[in-house]
Structure formats: structure tokens, C-alpha cells
Amino acid sequence: MAPKGLDHELLNENVKKCQYAVRGELYLRASELQKEGKKIIFTNVGNPHALGQKPLTFPRQVVALCQAPFLLDDPNVSLLFPADAIARAKHYLSLTSGGLGAYSDSRGLPGVRKEVAEFIERRDGYPSDPELIFLTDGASKGVMQILNTIIRGEWDGILVPVPQYPLYSAAISLLGGSLVPYYLEETANWGLDINNLRQSVALARSEGITVRAMVIINPGNPTGQCLSEANLREILNFCFQENLVLLGDEVYQQNIYQDERPFISSKKVLMDMGLPLSKEIQIVSFHTVSKGYWGECGQRGGYFEMTNIPLKTVDEIYKVASISLSPNVPAQIFMGLMVNPPKPGDISYQQFVRESEGIIESLRKRARIMTDGFNSCRNVVCNFTEGAMYSFPQIRLPPKAVEVARKAGKVPDVFYCLRLLEATGISTVPGSGFGQKDGVFHLRTTILPAEEDMPAIMASFKKFNDEFMEQYEDHRGYSRM
Amino acid sequence: MAPKGLDHELLNENVKKCQYAVRGELYLRASELQKEGKKIIFTNVGNPHALGQKPLTFPRQVVALCQAPFLLDDPNVSLLFPADAIARAKHYLSLTSGGLGAYSDSRGLPGVRKEVAEFIERRDGYPSDPELIFLTDGASKGVMQILNTIIRGEWDGILVPVPQYPLYSAAISLLGGSLVPYYLEETANWGLDINNLRQSVALARSEGITVRAMVIINPGNPTGQCLSEANLREILNFCFQENLVLLGDEVYQQNIYQDERPFISSKKVLMDMGLPLSKEIQIVSFHTVSKGYWGECGQRGGYFEMTNIPLKTVDEIYKVASISLSPNVPAQIFMGLMVNPPKPGDISYQQFVRESEGIIESLRKRARIMTDGFNSCRNVVCNFTEGAMYSFPQIRLPPKAVEVARKAGKVPDVFYCLRLLEATGISTVPGSGFGQKDGVFHLRTTILPAEEDMPAIMASFKKFNDEFMEQYEDHRGYSRM
Q1: Which of A1, A216, A307, B267 to pair with B56, CA 20 to 30 A apart?
Q2: Which residues form the Aminotransferase class I/classII large domain (chains A, B) (predicted)?
Q3: Is residue A445 assigned to a domain?
Q4: Per-residue DSSP letters for A371-429?
């Protein structure tokens, strides 16, 4: 009988070939084990609330009131909600036409986009235009939309860091483009060497690929580094020379754990470079409510800001956004609250500062506990997490382990991570899901388990790892590299 | 200078060529006029809350509590929330791991998918498997995901009704496939003639196109008809003969205004047909929280159910969904509430019934007022809205009006709708945005303006239309058809 429309053999090949390791084999196995009753520590995805991080109180109060606007007329409302949350809910409702149940403009509510522009102006010290800011259902949706606008076919290439967050490889596969990798230098704390970039572009060109855009993830995912101002300037100059759009994944800009390495936006660096470049280089930068001390992943809120993008292109992006009618409105309110948090003097200010600083301080400590923990393990080395939410240790697998893995039909780091999962319940993502140099192995874990659980988790990891290494090391000849 | 990556000339041609009239030229002009201070009646999009429909109280109470779970520990909570809303909020929070701020599984919360399956079982009288139900950010996202799974290139065709909701034409363009139109019969109350389908498929085949799926919109958008059981059986037989996946856009299944024409799901009709067909024909059906008496458009919640789709394909769809991590969680709760509303005996039951019946009753009246209003206008004929939220009158434009429009560089119905907008503030969508037979013109309007405003709106329409016809009719020879 002829195959039917949704039989596997007839599907879009781009759908079949794309891969997304963050919810790949390891996650699926972890979900199975959880169903069987095993306690799983899900560190595969940056999902803070799932690991016990409490939501910030003030924004949740505001959004709850926006969902139930009839409470604003209830004489008892002030027993449950502070006056500034009530005022803020009224403010956001006044920006909608019909509350949270009405589609907004497909770019998002104009009033929230204005608040985003004001936030960017305060952050960078340069003007930002709300007409060039689109709200999205999480940053990922924005990234996919922009890549879809750029990619025409397999001869269009996108420069992507390796290791990378696999949204990029997956989206490029799905859209039928080509991923052009550039390697980050692990020995230079995952820094970006412009010579590597040049080589990557030259190689791609020799294969007939037109490189059209470059992705940076800053702070890095999975690598945790913060790009320096000098490095960002080099990158922008490179984009100018090579005629590339810079796609700045800046979703971890609030997740900074080292004072001497602050976050600097690509747009600010570009504006600091002045004319003519500041009017020439095209940037799209992405942000989200899912990260930072917010961690409101489940709400799916994000934005992108376009710099030096022609209006005709902005109109095309608007048109495509309009096919999905509008990003979800509650998350637009979260975005407004994120870029316009309580101010000194507001009733909720102290609480907001206490909660948000508490989260960042704790993440900073956890980054340290985790890095130190990994570095205390046999055959494991790990750069410090300067930013973002991940630790990306290198696991120096003994040749015997590599051999056993290959015989079992597994990529060696997948083999290691599966063994780790079965032994300890720790659900990580193998480095091969992000890309890594040949013969080098990693895993990615979030730094999100609760601070008080962290020592036990790291002890459990160390016990597993050191026994694993003991089992597979060739004591006759193999030595630590 | 060489064009840059996001310059218009270098963009993905599929992005440039797709069209979405619901937010096209008319909407953009209406937005401009609104900015200039003109009062606009936005009937271009089915967005009930934007036109004053109040949200249902109980679901909003539950979601507000889920957003602010700390209220559940507040001794005053029962002053603002009824006990069943509190209990239901606790229930939904227990289905998440980490509340609304945590990503769910990429298919949606298992507990909500189970509630959806139970709803489908009650509706159709046949089993439904939660593993084959995926929650989505609105139905549109689900439609796009399934079309993306099917379409491999321009030689893959999708049968789409004409007139159609332009999500389909836009998504097919964007994905690089081919739209294969089949015409609905206006004179048969927008019924579907299987002979038309056969002709469409034959014509497409002669052009080298492989027709792979067929879209039905039931109840119809923009056409408002409800497909009969007999018609659905014919359609399913046709899909079997032609080896097509049936994509059932059933988002208006609660919007039914004529008792003798109830909604029947395509899945129920298939199951009623029994073996072997009930195990053979592939169906994906779509639903949403945006329509019905809910109208929670801004929340962006939907689901699709897959019938007879192989597990390997389901896994591919799951993988692609996982790239976007998860549909927004608050709207998943709305979906749970929609499929599992208050029951007799619950504290909120009476209020829920009063509110929801009030909305449907009023829509039923408005459908009648609008149809009658259009039919009272010169050169306008309009089928009754049996279901959905739209009226789709045919506007019989005098040849002189067609000529003037063409000289002004406008499609004639666009010309008419723009004139209507400028004269009355009524923002509609021209029939050409949905597709129509050559030389025949329509407009789509929602039936959503408040019941009390409806007579004035229809009077304003009639005044404009009859003056327009007076202006352009050739009194020497032209007569009403």
C-alpha cells in the first residue's frame, strides 16, 4: 500500500534531520526513569522554577490581578495585594484593548515595547526605537523568526559558535540552511579568536556557501563566558568586513557572577564605535523573561531589538509575525515588569530587591561550588561560570571507556551521561549535543539545583565519576593529561 | 555597496511572498486612522475581548491563583476567591513541576492532556489517547507545525477551501509548498461538493503536484457553515481514496447558532465509519481557547489531536516542538479549564453557565441581526452564519466601481472596504484575502461587536453601501442581479 501523508518516509527531511539534544536521548531516558519512580535531578535545561526557585512576588501579583481584573473592584483586594501591584496592574490593563484575553498587535503591546526601549536606553546610553522592538513567545521564537527571514536554502550559511546552544543547529536544519561552525577556545576560558572565525568563513566559502549572519551567545550557553568589550568590537568589525548580520543571543545578561566581567550589549559596543559603522552593521539582539533572576520559562516571553535593519524588512517580519496573530499577552506583561521593576520608594521595592539579589547571590555561590566540585574530580576540568546558568566540564574519557561506548553503539559522552543518570539520577546533556572538537568530551549541567542540595549532588557526581574512571582507566599506561 | 544580510533583496523569497490579509492593508490603514483619532470598529479579526466580551470569571480566578500561588496560604484568600477556584488552582499546580514559571514537557502538561483526552471521549464517544494530544500556543502554531512536517517543497500540495482563513495560504507559502484550492458553493450555503474536490486534485496532478493533505474548516471561516455528517463522510472517503491527511480546523466547535446543524467532529465521523477506514485515515484536528464563549485569544492556548499517525512521526513532531521548549503554561491551564469546566453542584457552576450561555445566545442574535442587515442592503447577499464568528456577504460591485478601483490600482473589494473604513470606521477584510471566484466580491466581518451596538453599525454600513451603489450603478442599464 502507498505510504500516507504523515507516514515517516514521506515527512519533510529537514524535520527528520534536525536534532535538539537538550530534550534528546538523555532527557527521554530520565523521563522514563522518573516514571519508574527514580528520583531525577533535571539539570538538562535552564528551568529554575522546576528546581525550586521561587517566582518574584511583585510581578506575579501584578499578572494575577491582570488575569482577574474584577478583583480591582473588590473592596477586599488590598488585603491580598499591595497598592503598587494594584496600580501597576491598572497600568498594564490600560495598555491593552480588552485585557489579557485580547490579541495584541502582532509585534506586542505598544506600551510594553516602549518600556523595553526605555530599558535599553538606560542600559546602553543610546536611543532605542519601540518600532524596532518585537515581543515574542520566548526568545527562541524570535530567533527562529529571524533565521527564517534570512535563510533561503542550503547555500546560506550561519556562523554559530561551537559549543553552541542547539536551538541554533536545530533551527538552521529545520529551515534548510547550513550551519558554519566557529570554535570557542576552551583553554582561553571559551574566548572567541577572530582567526578561527576567518578560517570558518573561508572554508564555508570554498564549499560554495554564502555566510550571511553570525550568532554570538553572550553570556555563553553552554560555556558560561562573558565576552569582553574588546572582543565584541573585533566581532563587529569582522561582521562589517564580511557583511554579516550579528544575531546577539543576550538572554543571560542578568546572570553575571564575576564583577570584573560585566555584561556589555553588542548594540552598545556598536554605538560606541561611532559613525560610519554604527549606522552600517545590522544587529538583532534577543532577550527573555525565562532567565536572569526571573526564570519565568513557562510564561514564554521575550523580545528582539533590530538595529540598522531596513524598514521594508521590518515590515516583512511584522507580516510573518501577524500570521500567528500575537505573542501571548500575560508574558508581555512579565516583560514590561522585567524591564521596569519596582523603584526605590515603591512599597514592594525592598522585597523585590531582597528576592532578586538572593537568587543571583545564590547562583553565584552555586557556580563556584559546581566549578570547584568538577575540578576536584578525576579526569575532569572545568572553566568557571562567569555568566549564564551552566557548567560545561570537560570529561577526559579513558580510551577504554571510548572503546566500550563505541562497541555499545553510543557516542562516548552519551555513554558517560547515561551511566551518570542511571547511577545518580543526575540528568545532564552530553557535550556532543552542543558540538565540541574531535576526541574531546563534555557534559552540560545547569547550576540550578538548590544551594543546600549542591554539595550532595557534587559528592554523588564525584563518587560516580571517580569510580567510572577507576573502572576504565588503563593502569598500565594511561595517565592524566 | 553589497546588500547586507537583512536587506530586503536578500530575504527568503517565501517570507516575501506570503500574505495575511486579516492584518493586511485594511488593518494597517485602520490602525493609522485610529492613531489620528478616528473611532475604529475592529471587525477584521475574531478577537471578542477587544470588542467588550467579558472573560468567564471562574477560569480567570483559577489562573490568577496559579500565577500567585502564595495567595493559597493567605488566610484572606476566601474573601476574594470561591472554594472551587481555590481547589482547582491547587489541582493544576499539582500537575506542574514548579508552577507556571517552569517549562512543561514540550507536548504540554501530561495532566492537562489527559483532561483533553477525556473531553474528546465524552464529545465523540470514542477513546482518545493523551500521548497523541499536543498542547500548543494557539491553534495556528499547531497548524504550522503539522504543515511543516508534511511539506517538502513546491511539488507538495495542500487542498484548502476557497474562501479560506488565510493562515493556510500564508503558512503554505512560508513553507514553500503549493496551495491547491477547492471551491465552496456559495449558492449551496457554502457547502462542499466532492466533484469540485476531484477536479482540484486532478488539475493539481496534471501540473505535477502531489496532493498530500486536505484542510477543512468546520464550522467555516470566513464562511460560517457547519459541515453535515454526510458531507464529512464523503470527505473522509475522498481522503482515503486519494491518500490524504485530513487537517480538521475545528476551532469554532462551540460557536453553533442553528440547532439543526450541530458540530460533529471529523474524528467521530471516522470512528462511526468503522473498520477498516477508522484505522486507516490520518487526521489531525485543532482546537483553541481563543474562540467559543471563551475568546481567550491573548492567552494563546490550543491543542491538536492526532489519529492514525505512526508513532515515529509523532516522535518527530515532539522533537520539533521541543526546540521551542514548551507552550506557555498559563494557557495550558485555560485549556484544562475549557475541556473540564465547572460541573453541576460546584459553587461556580451557575455563574459559569449564566456567563457562557449569555455569550452564545448573544452571538446567535448578532449572527441573525448581521445576516438580515446585509441582506437588506442594495447589491448585497449573505448566507446565514450557522457557526464560527463571521459574516461573509457577497458585494455585487457595479462594473463602474470595478473600473474605478482598477484605475486606482486596487483590487475592487479592497477599494470597497477601504471606502467603508474611511466612511464608517468599520474595519473589515476584503474577500480577496480569503479567495473567491473570479469577478465575485465579498468582505468578511466578525459578528463580535456588542449586541447593543449592532443595529447602529448595520445602519451605518447600509447607509455607506447604498450610497456607494447609488454612486457607481449605471442607471441606464445595470440592474440588480
Answers
A1: B267
A2: 84-449
A3: yes
A4: HHHHHTSTTEE-----BTTEE--EE---HHHHHHHHHTT--HHHHHHHHHHHHH-EE-E
For A299, name the nearest residue in chain B, comparing CA atoms only: B328
Give the residue from B306, B339, B372 where a domain finishes: B339
Q: How many structural domains comprise chain B? A: 2
Residues A294 and A193 in one domain: yes
Amino acid letter at B43?
T
User: Which amino acid, one-letter code, is at A340?
Assistant: N
Q: Is A369 exposed, middle or buried (0-12, 13-18, 19+ CB in 10 A)?
A: middle
Measured at the CA of A45, the angle between CA A41 and CA A47, to 5 degrees, comes to 85
Tens digit of pLDDT at every position of chain B (481 positions): 789 999 999 999 999 999 887 778 898 899 999 999 999 999 988 999 999 999 999 999 999 999 999 999 999 999 999 999 999 999 999 999 899 999 999 999 999 999 999 999 999 999 999 999 999 999 999 999 999 999 999 999 999 999 999 999 999 999 999 999 999 999 999 989 999 999 999 999 999 999 999 999 999 999 999 999 999 999 999 999 999 999 999 999 999 998 888 999 999 999 999 999 999 999 999 999 999 999 999 999 999 999 999 999 999 999 999 999 999 999 999 999 999 999 999 999 999 999 999 999 999 999 999 999 999 999 999 999 999 999 999 999 999 999 999 999 999 999 999 999 999 999 999 999 999 999 999 999 999 999 999 999 999 999 999 999 999 997 655 444 4
B117 and B161 part of one domain = yes
CA distance B291 to chain A (A): 11
Whether residues A290 and A148 fall in one domain:
yes
Tell me how close the Cα of A401 comes to any Cα of chain B, in angstroms. 29
Minimum CA–CA partner of B324 in chain A: A140
Cβ(A308)–Cβ(A271) under 8 Å?
Answer: no
DSSP B274: -
Taking alpha carbons only, the member of A243, A250, A246, A283 closest to residue A264 is A250
Cβ–Cβ under 8 Å, residues B167 and B140: yes
In Å, the largest CA–CA distance within chain A is: 79
Which residues of chain A does B325 touch, with a Cβ-Cβ cutoff of 8 Å?
23, 45, 138, 140, 297
CB contacts < 8 A, A to B, total: 299
Same domain assignment for residues A172 and A249: yes
Would you call A327 helix, strand, or coil by DSSP?
A: coil
User: A333 Cβ partners below 8 Å, 6+ apart?
Assistant: A62, A63, A66, A92, A100, A112
Question: How far is CA A321 from its chain centroid?
Answer: 21
What's the domain range around B381? Answer: 8-39+361-472
Alpha helices in B302-396 (DSSP H): 311-323, 329-339, 349-375
Q: Is A198 exposed, middle or buried (CB count within 10 Å of its CB: 0-12, 13-18, 19+)?
A: middle
Question: Does residue A23 sit in the same domain as residue A170?
Answer: no
